[in-house]
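User: Here's a chain of 539 residues. Predict its fold as tokens.
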Amino acid sequence: MSTPLRVLIVEDSEEDAALLLHELKRGGYDTVSERVSTLKEMRSALNRKWDIILLGCSLMHLDVPTALALLKEKGLSVPLIVVSSRASEELAVAAMKAGAQDYIVKHNLARLIPAIGRELRQAEGRREHKRAEEDALRQSEEQLRQSQKMEAIGRLAGGISHDFNNLLTAIIGYSEFLLFRLDQEDPLRKYAEEIKKAGERASSLTRQLLAFSRKQVLQPEVLDLNIIVADLDNMLRRLIGEDIELVTLLEPDLGAVKVDPGQMEQVIMNLAVNARDAMPYGGKLIIETANVDLDELYARQHSPIRPGHYVMLAVSDNGCGMDKETLSHIFEPFFTTKEQGKGTGLGLSTVYGIVKQSEGFIWVYSEPGTGTTFKIYLPQVQGAERWPKTSPLTTRMQRGSETILLVEDEEVVRELVGKLLPVNGFTVLAARNGSEALAICQQHKGPIHLLLTDVVMPQMSGRQLAAHLSKLHPEMKVLYMSGYTDDAIIRHGVLEPGLAFIQKPFTIDTMIQKVREVLDSPVECLVSGTGQVVADKGR
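Assistant: Prediction complete.
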């Protein structure tokens, strides 16, 4: 049964009003109507909902402009059609200019039904457009609130990350020193292991805080996502358990993307964990890659995505799925549907932050009882050499005998690195700042093979120091380290291609491996006196 048409008839003649209702009935409309003949009555009637207003022209104090002004005053956009006994072109033009939707003469009511049908369709179109605008506004407001929340937490995380990461470097590093010194049977060993685990968990939490706020340091490489997925295969199978089937559908000629390989591994792992938790009784996890071209229509429907060539990474499960309310919050930091103590609520917000910081987009599709699909779109890049997956260096390969100039203003980190490098065969010259490093370098008679320097220091940055020292030791290589977020690192020009960098906190193995990697790389550039890279230094 169709909904009755709600008609407000502004007419002083009952006969004319009845004639209009009869015409509507002939046109197939069931109606709910009310007739008013004064401004006061119309004002009262407009407190109720109407689909169409039919306005007669014979009223003394209720002409077209007055009626339209009243509609505007009430904030209503109900279509208004003038029904007049006078066939006057002048009156018709005046009514239409004033804002009426149509002007119909009473002795020619054949036009009434088509006019009402047209106006109802147009009114519905306007309502749909308004709803779309309101939805877009709500979405924009929600995105703004989310952005402000992430920015606030990002500022907090960024503000403490430098000091926090320096402390964590010492906690993790010295716990590893203890583990090296303690026998396997020593009862103190378990305490050192717990200290290291706690430091690593704190380090992971810091990285996640910086990730979702898009302030972590990324080291992007041009790579094939298929390699990342393939390398994670065994780890993912152990992670999700034997009761979940892992299926990979990888496009053979996948386009290249420019992302941080370690962070993309984190994205896939986090999504796999999310899928595993949605399938407590087993199921299927599908990881898919594909080349996709997103057109203008898709971009308009999925703002803020832009048209172009993308590589898609999709992670799907057939688990419990999510309702709309949950979907609206899944990327918010600290939001979780898990029991207390079962999760931090940072897994998906970390994924979101990494994808956005990598210039990509992420969409999620889910239905309760059906499953969930996350689709990540990363821009394709052309004409660049792809990242090769290299095997980690063994511990024996990481030792050395070279001389390293260590410059670090944080005493606890300087002492730690100053101890771990000699243990692995290196000679260390330690300085607290750039001025002290220059003095040591001038007094030292032998070669200095590597400058290992903090990025942000008082008086002279690590980049400026490298520029000065390159004049005295042109063959010296440089490895930068920092606990700051990417904003500070970018300002100091360290994230440029070809420059070696290690993020605090780091483990002993990671530091020694990175030092060995930089020392063994071919020298293909020098740092100019102004601190600008004139060619890439091999890494």
